[in-house]
């Protein structure tokens, strides 16, 4: 991409440099221009018009500015030097009406310095902005993983507590009825398997960011979240069966973040549709609004965290414009993918 962007700039630089030298030769004579010999003009030409000099200077300075701002440094440095040389060559060897040669050379040099400085300032500003954006996105991913760790802690603690209770009961019963104690072992194994599955899907470090509190009733949680959002939300919740606790928390968190994005970036939305459906393989959710269409990055870093969460759970995520609003969809597998 960098080479493709630099090639037109190189061609433009060569053409402009050749044109400036050619015009200088047309004004003072090609032999003088090429041999760096000053002298009077060879006669009146249309290039003697001061307006042409202004346009020519502006074109050169625009090229210099773009090189300093956008072009790769390996291309920008020699290009700027070449443009500076032909501009100073023209300023020195062409006859001037309003300026002495020394004044013309100094003026062009100052204009070149200011132009290069402006381009470099924009270059550094864009690099700084890109670095800050990358850092913020990385922090959003890290925060989302840490939030999942808090949920993991709750889920695993639930499984381990159940295993501990069953193991203690088995110890008590074993003294009198070993067969009955052995019958409790499959429940302990199942609890351990569920805990390991949750860990393999969500294990990360810890964060508490005030996300929506989940209960055992995901349908009620989603309706409650929609009611508290302050948005004109219509909900369609089709959950015929219970889902894993960590999956339910993720569904709730994704819907919460999507509604937060609507509130921040689509304040003119008059309709928000939330759908959550359970299939044999996955939980499907979508949040769509009819607010003003915004650019792909307008969701801020919330979209980054949502995508990170879905990918960690082995699902698929999409967010983008529908032409009449904004759509967020996710597909989360019901079973843990080890």
Q: Which labels suit this protein?
A:
single chain, 338 residues, alpha+beta, Heat Shock Protein 90, five-stranded mixed β-sheet
What is the gist of this entry?
This protein has 338 residues and is of the alpha+beta class. It is built from ten helices and five strands, in the order H-H-H-H-H-H-H-H-E-H-E-E-H-E-E.
Characterise this structure.
There is one protein chain. This protein has 338 residues and is an alpha+beta fold. Strand 4 (316-321) and strand 5 form a beta hairpin. Strands 1-2-3-5-4 form a 5-stranded mixed sheet, with helices on one face. It has helices spanning 2-28, 30-35, 50-70, 73-93, 101-174, 178-183, 185-202, 218-228, 245-265, 302-312, and strands at residues 233-238, 272-278, 282-289, 316-321, 326-333. The radius of gyration is 34 Å and the shape is elongated. The longest helix has 74 residues, at 101-174. It has 10 helices and 5 strands; from the N terminus they run H-H-H-H-H-H-H-H-E-H-E-E-H-E-E. Among the domains are: 2-98; 211-338, Histidine kinase-like ATPase, C-terminal domain (Heat Shock Protein 90), CATH 3.30.565. The chain starts with a helix and ends in a 5-residue tail after the last strand.
């Amino acid at each position: 991409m960098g080479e493709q962007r630099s090639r037109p700039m190189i061609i433009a630089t060569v053409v402009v440099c050749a044109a400036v030298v050619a015009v200088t030769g047309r004004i003072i004579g090609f032999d003088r221009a090429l041999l760096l010999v000053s002298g009077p003009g060879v006669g009146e030409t249309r290039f003697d018009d001061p307006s042409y000099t202004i346009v020519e200077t502006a074109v050169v300075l625009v090229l210099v500015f773009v090189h300093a701002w956008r072009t790769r440094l390996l291309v920008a440095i020699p290009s700027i030097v070449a443009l500076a040389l032909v501009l100073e060559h023209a300023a020195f060897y062409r006859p001037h009406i309003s300026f002495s040669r020394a004044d013309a050379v100094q003026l062009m040099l100052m204009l070149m310095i200011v132009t290069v400085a402006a381009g470099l300032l924009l270059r550094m500003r864009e690099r700084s902005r890109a670095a800050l954006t990358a850092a913020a996105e990385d922090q959003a991913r890290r925060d989302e993983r840490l939030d999942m760790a808090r949920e993991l802690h709750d889920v695993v603690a639930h499984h381990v507590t159940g295993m501990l209770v069953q193991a203690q009961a088995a110890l008590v019963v074993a003294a009198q009825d070993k067969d009955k104690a052995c019958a409790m072992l499959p429940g302990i194994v199942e609890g351990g398997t569920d805990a390991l599955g949750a860990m393999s899907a969500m294990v990360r470090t810890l964060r508490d960011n005030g996300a929506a509190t989940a209960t055992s009733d995901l349908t009620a949680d989603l309706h409650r979240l929609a009611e508290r959002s302050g948005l004109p939300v219509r909900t369609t919740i089709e959950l015929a069966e219970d889902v894993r606790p960590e999956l339910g928390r993720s569904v709730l968190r994704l819907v919460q973040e999507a509604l937060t994005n609507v509130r921040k970036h689509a304040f003119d939305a008059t309709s928000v549709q939330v759908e959550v459906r359970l299939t044999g393989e996955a939980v499907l959710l979508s949040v769509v609004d009819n607010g003003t269409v915004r650019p792909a990055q307008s969701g801020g870093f919330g979209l980054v965290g949502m995508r990170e969460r879905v990918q960690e759970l082995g699902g698929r995520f999409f967010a983008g414009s529908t032409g009449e609003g904004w759509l967020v969809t996710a597909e989360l597998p019901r079973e843990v993918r080890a």
